[in-house]
Here is the input.
Amino acid sequence: MKRYFILLSCLSGLQVFSQTNDSINKNELIELDQTVISGQYNNQSVKKSIYEVKVITREIIDRQAGNTLADVLNQTLNMNIIPNSSTGKSTVRMFGLDGQYFKILVDNIPLVNDEGLGNNTDLTQINLDDIQQVEIVEGAMGVEYGANSIAGVINIITKKGGKNLYDILAVVQEETVNNEYNWKNKGKHIQSLKIGHKFSDKIYGNLSFSRNDFQGFFNDKQGKNYAFSDKLRGYDWIPKLQNSAKALVQYKDENFRLFYKFEYFNEETKYYNPEVKLNHQPQTDTDNPTSDDRRYTTDRIYNHLNASGRFKNAINYDISLSYQEQKRKLKSYTYEILTGNENDIKKYDYESRKVYYSKGMFSNFINKNDYFDFQFGYEIDQTKGYASPISMEYNADPNKPVERRIGTYDVFASSEISLNDKISFRPGARIMFSEQFNTQYVMSFSAKYSFAKNWELRGILGTSPRLPNYDEMYSYMVDVNHDIRGNENLNPEKGISGFLHLKNSLNINSITSFEQKLSIWKIDLKDKIELVPIAGDGLRYLYENIDNYKVQGITYLNQYSFGNFFAGIGATITGIKQSIDQTNVVEKEDNKYFYTVQANASISYKFSKSNTIVSAFYKYNGEEQRYVLKTNPDNTKEQFLEKGKQQGFSWLDASVRQSFFKNKFDVTLGARNLFDVKNLRNTTSSDGAHTAAATSIMYGYGRSYFVKLSFNLGIN
Here is the structure.
């Protein structure tokens, strides 16, 4: 074991790499040479960025045969994918904080979803077909991106141009779900087509279509047509079908760029109830088995108009206008299993959101000044919509939806000062006006120092509030067995974080390079919102600002490349301390940090003669611990604290990619989850209002295999 950890410290963590005809391209391998957008005044290299930006390139995505954002973030340190087999969704936790504390953006625009704008995004709904790269900015980004970004942002940068008169990309991917696969109703079936056209040197446009058909995971279940009452009907992981259509048109000249993007996204998930009613017919001595099933449909429309450039070669501007709309519909019905008939059909508009969003940034007010620049900006978000009462309240009238309207209006400013070639820093501030909350103030200070021998030190100290979401403010679930209520008087959570990054990169010769990075961070949340029992009554629950939450950690990464060979490893230790309301707890416990370990590794080699690339990606997620509240079953007014644990596990993906006909045709063969992870022991969830917490979770559906065929044709 000791030798193993010594070896890990000498190798390197997964960063980014790419290929040329004969060797791995060091412009892709060395992260410092990547051009990034997130948090910048102008597009620039990672090396010049005052922020620490991690880049996941197109090449990494292709080698993993990644289809959704969940596929690539699953191998990234300080990220924990949180899948849900009963809803089909996958969210992500970043630096020990859930999806409410960082934003997921597409070209700097937050993406609407079922639970918010840019937060708690379902990663499986973000297709990677037209992605250029994924940028991860670590640290408080409240000045640049507003509320709910105390841990950072994940910015997805899409492709907006082409090299040829016509570019055609067609992709077909077939994948098993564990050992389940056929053409009809098992496995995963993916197809996409993209056609781009360069109308002139200044005008480019493209159209793309994609389909992702996940047929669910049966495991021990028997599907929808199983007609026995032993709870084996349905799926362990529900089926999901996604279709999307995208269009882009761009005009670009020397000092001006204008683009418009449109996307229509449709998703259908099907829930097949394991409870079967036999409905015995005495007159015929036969059964008419039925089950109460549900079908959820999500429709999303995304519009983004962006203009950027320079006024008279001086002031830079970047202005975006966006309109997004998402509707989630529910169809509930009684399914006759033997006949396939659907009866007692009820349809609801389960949830609806309309978002009007605009963001503008202006910089470079002092022309031809390399030592000082400043930026002004604004951000407007107007979200309108409703949630059906059936999602909030039992026995409500679905024809009277619960309306909601949330608006924020922000202005921000920052300045970037370079004292010399080594020292630069950026102070910034934002004022946030809201229709629901008091005015919020956000501050940040970032700095960068370049040492000799390619050492760089970056730091960021900043704040960002987390605004209460709709459920926390307005939810209402009261009946004979439940009493859970929102709280309209909640205050925004207050967050402050500090990150420090020390990085060194060394190009030993033309084919050999080495890079290492050490990061430490601390995040402090106050007035954290939790669902707590009302004092003196263990049956009633209310959302309150009662909690403090602290996260701290250290990460070490390094990477090494030699010609066609790239290898690496990294590790991180994260500690979480949560103060828990112990008003009704019989035996008090002192709050303390619980630490968990993550480690990842990767290796890649290209065989030049055959144009074959072999890659492997490994990640270890260590055991997690935390105190959880339990209710005394004999006295619901008494509670006690218990140390809960989530089982650690290892995840390994591998692929072989072969190119033919001068890289016009690629075949990728691979396997995911080679260690066959399915269920994890988990006792970290608190009891519900009237239910005991589950003792295990379904994290994956086991070892799967895939083949991906890509055809890329350029016509001039």
